[in-house]
Amino acid sequence: MSKDIEQVLSEIEDIIDSARLMPFSSGRVTVNSDKIKDLINEGRASLPQEIRMSKRILEDRDAIIAGAKKEAETIVQKAEERAKLLVSNDAITKRAHSQGIELITQAQTKSKMLRESAYDYINSILAESETALTASLTEVKRTRAALKTKTKGK
User: Fold this and answer.
1) Is 113's pLDDT higher than 80?
2) Which of 3, 34, 74, 130 is the most buried (most CB within 10 A)?
3) What mean pLDDT is predicted for residues 77-87?
4) HSE of 11 in the Cβ direction (CA atoms, 13 Å)?
């Protein structure tokens, strides 16, 4: 089972925290470098997976928007067809015209609502992804800085 970047970073941090202090070394520790390298490689492997997930979210967004546009077009087309059927004489024509405008307005309103809802949903998912990736990046930087600090002067 593949680990996510958070798990990998936690394991690296645990290794560093449980490492033995070297005598007379001003806080330097000894760690199993092979284990650290393995964990770093696992972290690198999990990043593309998280990026692929973000790309899938973007693809889903495009599919949602395309579906909303298609539904709006269908609604408009049905409204236009219905309006044409209602145009048979003056009284019916006036009523059909107003109903057609109303249907088109409703279709446009529904289309706008669907689009806005899709954008809001996608934006929230992307914001969550951005937050997770930012947190992961911050943790990687913090861990690297801790490693650098602990390994200086070897």
Assistant:
1) yes
2) 3
3) 78
4) 16
Segment 83-106 mean pLDDT = 78
3-state DSSP helix/strand/coil % of the chain, to nearest 5: 85, 5, 15
pLDDT of residue 74: 93
Helix and strand totals (H; E) in the chain: 3, 2
Q: Supply the pTM of this predicted model.
A: 0.37
Q: Write down the pLDDT at residue 33.
A: 85
Short-list 121, 13, 12, 25, CA closest to 64 = 121
Residues 6+ apart with CB under 8 A from 126: 54, 57, 58
